[in-house]
Predict the structure of Two pore channel protein 2.
Amino acid sequence: MGFEKCHSAGADNDLHINQAIVFIEDAIQYRSINHRVDSKSLWLYRWYYSRTCQWILNLTITVILALAFIEEPSSLTVTSDVRYRLPSWNPPCGLTESMELLCFLVFMVDVSVKTYLIGWKEFWKNKWLMAYILTLIVSLADWIVSLSFFCKESVRIRRILRPFFLLQNSSMMKKTLKSINSTLPEMMSVFLLLAVHLALFTMFAMLLFVRTKDNQQDKEWVVYFRNLPDSLTSLLVLLTTANNPDVMMPAYSKNRAYSIFFILFTVLGNLFLMNLLTAIIYNQFRGYLLKSVQSSLFRRRLGIRAAFEVLSSLKETPASAQQSCVSGGALLQVLQKAEMDSHCKQAIMRSLKMCSCDQLSAAQFQKLFEELDKDAIKQHPPSPEYQSHFMQKMQFAFGHPYFGYLGNVIALANIISICVVLVMDADKQPSERDDFFLGAINCFFILYYLLEMLLKILAMGLKRYLSYPSNRFDGLLTVILLILEIATFAVYGFPHPGWRPEFMGLLSLWDMVRLVNMLIVFRFLRIIPNMKFMSLVVTTLLDLVKNLRAFAGILLVVFYAFAITGIMLFKGAVVSLGDTSAANSTHDNGTLQCGTYEQLEYWPNNFDDFAAALVTLWDVMVVNNWQVFLDAFSRYSSPWSKIYFVAWWLISSVIWVNLFVALLLENFIHKWDRRCQRESLSDIEYQRTVELMFRDVLEEPTEEELMEKLHQHPHLHLCR
């Protein structure tokens, strides 16, 4: 059970070393140190957090989430269009249920190990762990019900609960969700203001656009403001500008003064209140996320201090707090066994060797591990040193940035030539096209790209060339283009006037040329690193992709839950009209009202399977024409279906998108502020994490706070 007695001479040094290793690893990963610290528990703890175990757990979560694509209703069809979709293959009863059971067994082992490691006292404080067990119990009960009904039940509660397994496994997602939850009170004040704004203007609209004796004059009332639900829906959609100016046109065509009503509504609601909501979310969420990251910093400092305390017990005689110290040899032994990034480990070892003292105080010990808080840097290998004067000149010429600029100009010329040919051939039939010109110029440009790549490798050396992501991108596409060009010549011969050979092999000549042209256009992205501002924008986006996985994870959780709910509510609701043939379909749509689900042929957007539900939710989240979905599903199922879509719009398009904008702004502003500091270090790549984004404004915990928290450790008891 750890140190149930104060540290004394002759204590198990191996135990102390192992405890220090685990505490250091906890600090690196921002994990809590409130777990058992006896020998067996430490072994189990390191085994649980090993790459193999975590890989198995992540694979299990992926499998149980992916089951929604193959279980009934299966997404294994070519199209989701209800007019053309063939009956899908559905797995026999028991197949996906068996896979689910295996996943549940892994989760039961997971929760059992977690519960044992933290102990019962900490378990009752951990709401996430209790929710984990409750979710497993409900899921297993629902699984038993499914087998009892031979998989014929229409509602499966456990499918909605599946995203929880992803949520509970990510500490950053938990922190993000907690931050969102803390931001909700401030959001609700703006939502209330939006609701008041919507309600007042709805009342005004129903008073302005009333039914008249002349049916030709009350089109506004008939289409948009016939009753309270229609009026609310019309103005809610106008708040997102999805039906602007459609909703205004009938009244505006009758009297231009009616435009004032719609302009006022849009200005107050969309320009003021919605943007005010973005500002509030940015300000409040940034503050709460900062607090969350501050707690992560505290965990890191606490883990390092705990490692210091257990290593200081290796001395034969107890020491007071002021006299406690750790030998460099003990720390070196810990570093060699601890799992951490190699660059951090090497940096700490270098700092340790440079330290003149044999014994490290708590402050010195903590300072050594500040390397964990620094930016991860990647230095490029040096260029080769040539002895020949001619080779040195070659290296200077082809390693100069101007040579790269020349390559960009050539790539631009290639793009322009492709555009010219596409414009000239736009109205020609495939049989009338002559691929000689495009084939010849592509051959020339690809040979230049190959020569450019080889000369850069000559100037920079292969290792240095490959150390740049832009060069890897450029070189890979050049090799692919060369292979495609050789394959084209091997199958269809060299370009010549009237080059239109018959179809041979896997792809026609036109398909081969199109594929080459697409890769050439894609290769033009190589110019981004050479344009500083564009490079800054792109690196910001890449950092978001790499470091803000928690936000994508939360969006995935919401997408998954809403998609499953949508399947339960609207599966089979949308039914195709009349004949499914293309000709009749076109003819039928000509008689349908313009702008409706049927006339726009939105048939693939439905909730008949999981994949279709995800795409439908995405289309609604973008809010372009989302009023079409509101109208269609209220007709095909129930008017109450609007609540589902409005809830999805609020969560995805309003809350999550604004959160994403807030973090995008934070990341971009941070990089913009640091841009001047990095201009002299252009040969070094800096990689930042969410925690490092806020590192400059975080407060260091005091020694008193750390020691107080250590003395509250449920399994580690210190003498002082």
Summary: DSSP finds 29 helices and four strands in the chain.
